[in-house]
Write a structure and sequence with these properties.
- The protein contains 30 helices and 32 strands.
- With about 1050 residues, the chain is an alpha/beta fold.
- It folds into 5 domains: about 180 residues, no CATH class; about 250 residues, 3-Layer(aba) Sandwich (Rossmann fold), CATH 3.40.50; about 110 residues, no CATH class; about 130 residues, no CATH class; about 220 residues, Rossmann fold.
- α28 links the parallel β28 and β29.
């Protein structure tokens, strides 16, 4: 069991608002020593002294130079470095004076100076100014230098990007290397002295308290973490040094699993049934064990197994006796297997009998039904969960790679500038800019990357033709000049992000300088989606090119899954064994088509897959021909590895039977031959798509490191920064990251965990502290990290998915920065949404609701009255049974009358408990039982014709989870034809619009705009499209629930 030591660690340092003094810079004229000239603030340059204490950083005093960016944001948009999506119109370069290593002196202006410099302060008196001299004993720290910049005009652009003299006085690089500064400051001498005072504690260096070694070490973590408990740290983008950055990026993941890893399996679990196992943890099963166990089983594909108190003598895989072990899957409330089962203080699992081996012969004591099972004696079993430590370690290793001397990916060793690029990326990701690198290598300039460079006009035009017309010209301009080779695409839902990403995947595959690339997304579902879309686009573009007579082969896009799963399924296909269907007993994400298994079977010439032709990927076709040559009695072997593939080829072609293959070749030989062949198959691919976790294992790891010359990330707004580094590496290659930073950020398992929130007082053993002090850092995704570091963003502005009018509400509430350019595409005409028109007519007939315009469809709000939210005493998740009943009673007759398919409807809610309540209620109506009811978070990236949102919130003070702006952005943008919102319109009283704000979470999170829900409700009230519904007390009596 982990140590119970709770010692206060370093407390977070809260930021202090920026204090500034306007100033001008006094310089000697270049050719006239002793003669001063003055650099003053104007429309093209702003100078000021700044004093700031950033959160969790060392405070500083410095000189800030601010210059305006290009005002045209159609092609490129910049954002500030704070964690809110605030557009930035200016680049700020700050020269920080080293604390305790500078001195100042000040004096008033003499008469001659006052007369000579009166043009510098035309509206002020000379007595309001003083001259301040600052002398440094060491070099200043510079932030903001070297990041991408497009100036308001060519002159400003020349100052920053070409180091041309600023107003013909001094070059930027010369200015920033000075150790003495003479400043004309709008302040008295006394005010200047107070401004430069740096003795307070915030001006001391800040450290998080976790040392400088960030290599994976569970023993060190077990000492550090319990002794460094404390309040949560707010997220940052810019760090004082690489140690701060690496502490954050490693500890956020270590603390997400350390407590978990230390607690899983501390106590035995009991009770089981043959197909459904109900675990009833007993004894000293503290809250921390509940947390760990539930976290271990959370997710779609969490592996776990149960060991019984029964020994296997002389088992297949060991000479020592061992316990019988079966695989388990978690069962949730929607499953009919646990209908009417009491799950309080129980964990429901499905037991799976092994398909082979001596474990299969064991039959546990079982009952035919739940009622008889609860009367039986309990049987002890051991629940063994996997904590995901291996994947977390890969993340930690990826972070540590940033400061490693080795280049990764290895393919970048071919780049003559790899050393400089690696150093530049490390500096960029600290957040300070490239000043240190410029001092070390003054002549180095990071080259831009043009995705069209080297591409023929035919390929370029074919790809651009698939870009939506409104975006085509802008996209060509943006992707022709990618700073540091990094392109960022951000767009609201329905605007074609993945469509554009798929075109870029195809273009990069057809670019002779790239040819092979890696594609990744945060989840299996998102990775499937981007590969499916990329494959569809690639086939269309290749068909267009070949139809025009241009010679191009079909692209080979591989969807890579777990290597063991791929090998097992490939062998099943060769032996004629059917694949296991995905379902409640098999939650595997694996899909056959375009999997590595599928491509391997095609290379082998198996009849279970479409045959290859000479029009397919050249490398794969050549491999197929070489394997073809192994069929003859005297095979011609083109590669030293190929001879070991002869049995596989013979099996695939039917030359030997499955029985002959299994009897003739041992398990090790079979595995090695499939592993070897799959490595050859992957090396032929144009693109490989996996999750970041899968990318860490061969054969995908080798492809990514040694072959992939570019990376494309989809749904990058949900990707952890460490996951991005796992795929991207420490040496930059061309990268496109696509997503929406205003939708859900990455989520840590410990996101809302507190150490002391227990079922009862008996479980309280720790102070009110977070399990993970760095949960707030997950707010910054791989995409938003680069956005806040100063890289320009390409925005998509045209809505293509939703019927006209249905995006208006969220445009006002959350995406107002794109309003100047926003429009609906011709695809969004209501006449092309017949289902939406039918529902609108139904609403008008039954409720006489207004419509602002006949050519627009609008959301409808259902005000559910007398529908209180409930909460089980042992579960923080909320539910609203009466509201669920209202939704079911409204949908059932509407769906019957309008003949709406359940496949066209999805019901979303913030809380898992309410999701289960909706599922339970919907199962009672035949027309509703197949309607998808799920949480908002799990529906991100998906869509439906009709979206129903069940808010399950009564009061604004209880709404922080449901009202998270990112969660609302997902919930209210999944629809195509109709949007229904069920909730209480009085969450925010009408008189409070613009005043009422949803409470902030306790700590560790920085929201985009806590007023998003208020804006949504304001729009709803203004539309007057509100339908009152009254809850049925008989459906959910108050007497069922304990009084609060």
């Amino acid at each position: 069991m982990a140590s119970a030591i709770i010692a206060r660690g370093v407390e977070p340092r809260h930021g202090i608002s920026l204090v500034s003094l306007q100033c001008s810079l006094m310089l000697e004229k270049p050719n006239k020593p002793g003669t001063l000239t003055i650099l003053t603030s104007n429309n093209s340059l702003s100078l000021s002294l700044v004093k700031k204490s950033p959160k969790n950083a060392e405070a500083y005093v410095g000189l800030c130079l601010s210059v305006p960016r290009d005002v045209d944001t159609k092609v490129r948009q910049w954002y500030s470095s704070n964690t809110r999506m605030t557009p930035s119109q200016k680049l700020k370069i700050i020269c920080k004076f080293p604390n305790r290593h500078f001195t100042i002196s000040h004096r008033p202006l003499n008469d001659g100076e006052a007369k000579h410099l009166e043009y510098a302060f035309p509206s002020n008196k000379a007595t309001e100014f003083c001259i301040v001299s600052v002398s440094l004993t060491c070099d200043p720290t510079v932030t903001g230098f070297g990041i991408p910049f497009h100036g308001e005009n060519e002159i400003i652009d020349g100052w920053i990007n070409n180091d041309e003299p600023i107003h013909d006085t001094i070059r930027l690089t010369e200015l920033l290397q000075q150790r003495t500064f003479m400043l004309l400051v709008q302040a008295t001498g006394e005010e200047a002295e107070k401004f430069f005072e740096v003795t307070a504690s915030p001006f001391k260096s800040f450290h998080y308290g976790y040392g400088t070694n960030h290599e994976w070490d569970m023993d060190r973590y077990s000492y550090q973490i319990p002794r460094n408990r404390g309040s949560g740290f707010l997220p940052r983008v810019r760090y004082d040094d690489s140690n701060q950055r690496d502490t954050v990026l490693t500890q956020m993941h270590v603390q997400d699993v350390w407590d978990f890893h230390a607690k899983v399996g501390d106590e035995p679990a009991t009770t089981m049934e043959r197909f459904v196992c109900l675990l009833e943890p007993k004894g000293m099963f503290y809250l921390r064990h509940w947390r760990a166990t539930r976290r271990a089983l959370k997710g779609d594909f969490a592996p776990a197994r149960v060991e019984f108190n029964a020994l296997i003598e002389d088992p297949d895989d060991s000479r020592e006796p061992r316990n019988v072990s079966w695989t388990v899957v978690q069962l949730t409330m929607p499953s009919d297997l646990i209908r009417h089962v009491n799950l309080k203080d129980r964990i429901a699992l499905g037991l799976i009998r092994p398909t082979s081996g001596k474990d299969r012969k064991y039959t546990p004591a079982a009952s035919n039904n739940y009622n008889s099972a609860v009367k039986r004696d309990r049987q002890k079993v051991k629940l063994i969960c996997e904590s995901g430590i291996t994947n977390e370690r890969k993340r930690i290793d990826a972070v540590n790679r940033l400061t490693s001397p080795s280049t990764w990916p290895v393919v970048m060793d071919q780049d003559k500038l790899s050393k400089e690029k690696k150093a530049a990326l490390n500096d960029i990701l600290i957040g300070q800019g490239l000043w240190d690198m410029m001092k070390a290598t003054p002549s180095f300039r990071f080259p831009h990357f043009d995705v069209f460079d080297g591409v023929t006009a035919e390929v370029r035009d074919a790809c651009l033709d698939f870009v939506f017309e409104d975006d085509r010209e802008r996209a060509q301009e943006y992707f022709s000049k990618l700073h540091f080779g990094i392109g960022l695409v951000s767009a609201a839902p329905g605007m074609g992000k993945s469509h554009l990403a798929s075109i870029l995947v195809t273009l990069l595959c057809l670019n002779p300088s790239i040819r092979k690339l890696y594609v990744s997304a945060a989840s299996n579902v998102a990775t499937d989606n981007i590969l499916d879309k990329s494959n569809s686009i690639a086939e269309s573009i290749v068909k267009t090119l070949t139809g025009a007579g241009y010679p191009v082969k079909r692209l080979m896009l591989v969807r890579g899954y777990n290597g063991k799963m791929e090998r097992e399924n490939c062998l099943k296909a060769l032996l004629g064994t059917p694949f296991e269907e995905i379902g409640i007993w098999n939650s595997s994400p694996w899909r056959f088509e375009r999997s590595l298994c599928w491509w391997t079977l095609r290379a082998l010439g198996s009849k279970t897959v479409p045959p290859l032709t000479s029009d397919d990927c050249t490398e794969l076709w050549n491999l197929h021909r070489h394997l073809d040559a192994l069929v003859s009695p005297n095979p011609q072997v083109f590669h030293r590895d190929y001879s070991k593939f002869i049995p596989l080829v013979h099996l695939a072609r039917g030359i030997i039977t499955p029985k002959e293959y299994l009897e003739g070749y041992g398990k090790d030989v079979r595995n090695k031959s499939i592993i070897g062949l799959m490595a050859h198959v992957v090396s032929c691919a144009n693109a490989v798509a996996t999750t970041p976790a899968a990318s860490s294992y061969d054969p995908y790891l080798t492809f990514n490191s040694k072959m992939a010359k570019a990376v494309v990330f989809d749904e990058a707004g949900t990707l952890f920064r460490a996951d991005g580094l796992v795929v991207f590496g420490n040496t930059p290659r061309p990268m496109i990251a696509v997503g929406d930073p205003k939708q859900l950020a990455p989520v840590l398992a410990t996101a809302i965990e507190r150490l002391d929130v227990g079922r009862n007082e008996y479980h309280r053993h720790d102070h009110d502290l977070p399990t993970n002090r760095f949960v707030g850092e997950a707010e910054i995704s791989w995409l938003s990290w680069f956005i806040h570091l100063g890289f320009p963003v390409f925005h998509l502005h045209t809505q293509h998915r939703m019927a006209k009018g249905l995006f208006d509400m969220m445009l006002e509430a959350s995406y107002d920065e794109i309003k100047p350019y926003f429009k609906y595409s011709p695809l969004c005409r209501p006449i092309d949404f017949p289902l939406g028109l039918k529902i609108e007519q139904y609403i008008k007939v039954n409720h006489h609701l207004p419509s602002n315009s006949p050519d627009r469809l609008l959301p409808v709000f259902f005000n559910t009255l007398e529908c209180p939210c409930r909460q089980h005493p042992d579960n923080p998740s909320k539910l609203n049974p009466r509201q669920a009943d209202c939704i079911a009673k409204y949908l059932e007759p509407m769906m019957k009358e309008l003949s709406i398919s359940p496949a066209d409807v999805a019901v979303l809610t913030p809380f898992r408990a309410n999701m289960r309540e909706l599922q339970r209620r919907f199962r009672m109506a035949k027309v509703l039982k197949d309607v998808v009811c799920t949480t908002i978070d799990t529906f991100q990236g998906r869509e439906a014709q009709i979206i129903i949102v069940a808010l399950c919130v009564e009061k604004s003070k209880d709404a922080s989870f449901a009202a998270d702006p990112r969660r609302l952005n997902v919930a209210l943008t999944r629809h195509k034809s109709s949007l229904f919102i069920f909730g209480s319109i009085n969450i925010i009283p009408e008189s409070s619009f613009g005043k009422e704000r949803i409470p902030l979470p306790k700590e560790g999170k920085s929201l985009l705009d806590t007023n998003t829900m208020s804006k949504v409700f304001q729009t709803i009230r203004a539309s007057r499209r509100i339908v009152p519904l009254k809850g049925d007390p008989a459906w959910d009596p108050d007497t069922k629930w304990p009084k609060p």
